[in-house]
Amino acid sequence: MSKIEVDAIVPQSGTTLTVGESGDTITIPSGATFDASNATTTLPSTIVTTTGSQTLTNKTIDASQLTGTITPSDGTVTNAKIVDSTIQLAKLSATGTKDATTFLRGDNTFASVAGGTNTPAFLATMEAQSVSNDTYTVLAFNTEVVDTDSAYDNSTYTFTVPSGKAGLYYFTAMMQAEDVDDGERAQIVFAVDGSRNFRTMARNYSPGTNYAIFCTASSILNLSEGSTVVAQVLQDSGATQNVGYGQFGGFKIIT
User: Fold this and answer.
1) What are the respective helix, strand and coil percentages of the chain, to the nearest 5?
2) Which residue range forms the structural domain that includes residue 49?
3) Which terminus of the chain has a lower count of CB atoms within 10 Å, N or C?
4) What one-character-per-residue DSSP string does 145-164 give?
5) Burial letters for 186-207: b for 16+ Cβ neighbours within 10 Å, e otherwise?
6) Cα–Cα nearest to 159, from 118, 126, 190
7) Are 147 and 243 in the same domain?
8) Which residues in the chain show pLDDT less than 50?
9) Any domain includes 146
10) Distance between CA atoms of residues 218 and 172, nearest Å
11) Would you state the pLDDT for residue 247?
């Protein structure tokens, strides 16, 4: 194989320098640098890469004519060059939990949809119960109608705030007291962790004769995890009375 060593190859003025013929392979050895930075370079219609990756700067190329991978320079891909609906969630760096219940906010965080459900929620009913005179007695609401979080115990008639469910709760209770006479009273109160909360409705009646009356109570209570709530009744008719035919319920307030 012949070898020619020269410092420069320059074509005659006004002519074109041709290196090789059709079918020849022009090889630039490893370690050599082909510097065309100061020239106007016309690329062929097909560019075949051998390394699988090429970085091109300031070139307009029909990507359909390329094989291999083109790696654009950082910050050079515009929004118009991205195909619609092709960016997947796995490519996002947003914080938070991305799932079917969250959405992506403008500050690049996943957040839960505003609002929620009023749970835990419960409702229990009762029929007849005998209560002593002038004694706070837990009302025996022993039939569950609703109990979303299994937080109501229909054997102790107690609602217990589940783990992770602390907050504001709305409670309501109602019952019927029999044979209330002149100057006698019947009252419902809520007891939280054994302490009565008197933000309820106390009823004093002076009907002049015995009547069956309905008592109601409602309140908003700020409860901690594990707090317990029962409904209690007080009647001062002077003797044991029958109460019942009421309901006791509540739910967590969305804040």
Assistant:
1) 5, 40, 60
2) 33-78
3) N
4) EEETTS-EETTTTEEEPPTT
5) bbbbbbbeeeeeeebeebebee
6) 190
7) yes
8) none
9) yes
10) 4
11) 97
